[in-house]
């Protein structure tokens, strides 16, 4: 029996960075092209990102956490506005992913 799809929840900053990379490759719809995960969608992708940010809140720090949640909401709105990738929302949403990755690199550099 097939189990329902459950989005990955990152437990480390490195896993969160990998999750953002996955989002870059699978945006704007996040639908599975292989057929193995037909339940995967923009909803499950952003649920996983929200849960990851929540799980890493202490490691990120409150200010960075709030900014990343805001950017997550912004990114989702951009992807939803351009599901075909023809109106500029896809490119703008991917730029938000780059901004979030930069925030994580800065966090990692500050920790070392």
Give a short synopsis of this structure.
The chain is mostly helical. The protein has helices spanning 13-26, 42-55, 57-60, 62-81, 89-111.
Features:
5 helices; globular; 112 residues
Explain this structure to me?
There is one protein chain. By secondary structure, the chain is mainly alpha-helical. It has one domain. The chain is built from five helices and no strands. It has helices at 13-26, 42-55, 57-60, 62-81, 89-111. It starts with 12 loop residues before the first helix and ends with a helix. The mean pLDDT is 93.
**Number of helical regions:** 5
Poorly predicted regions are: none
Number of strands: 0
Strand content: under 5%
Which structural class is indicated by helix and strand composition?
mainly alpha
Number of domains: 1
Shape: globular
Give the % helix. Answer: 55-70%
Strand/helix succession: HHHHH
**Kindly state the mean pLDDT as a whole number?**
93
Largest sheet: none
């Amino acid at each position: 029996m097939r189990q329902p799809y459950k989005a990955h929840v990152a437990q480390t900053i490195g896993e969160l960075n990998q999750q953002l990379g996955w989002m870059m490759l699978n945006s704007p719809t996040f639908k599975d092209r292989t057929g193995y995960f037909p339940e995967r969608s923009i909803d499950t992708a952003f649920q996983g990102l929200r849960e990851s940010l929540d799980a890493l809140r202490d490691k990120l720090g409150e200010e960075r956490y709030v900014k990343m949640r805001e950017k997550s909401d912004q990114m989702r709105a951009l992807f939803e506005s351009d599901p075909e990738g023809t109106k500029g929302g896809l490119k703008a949403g991917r730029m938000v992913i780059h901004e979030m990755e930069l925030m994580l690199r800065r966090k990692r550099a500050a920790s070392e």
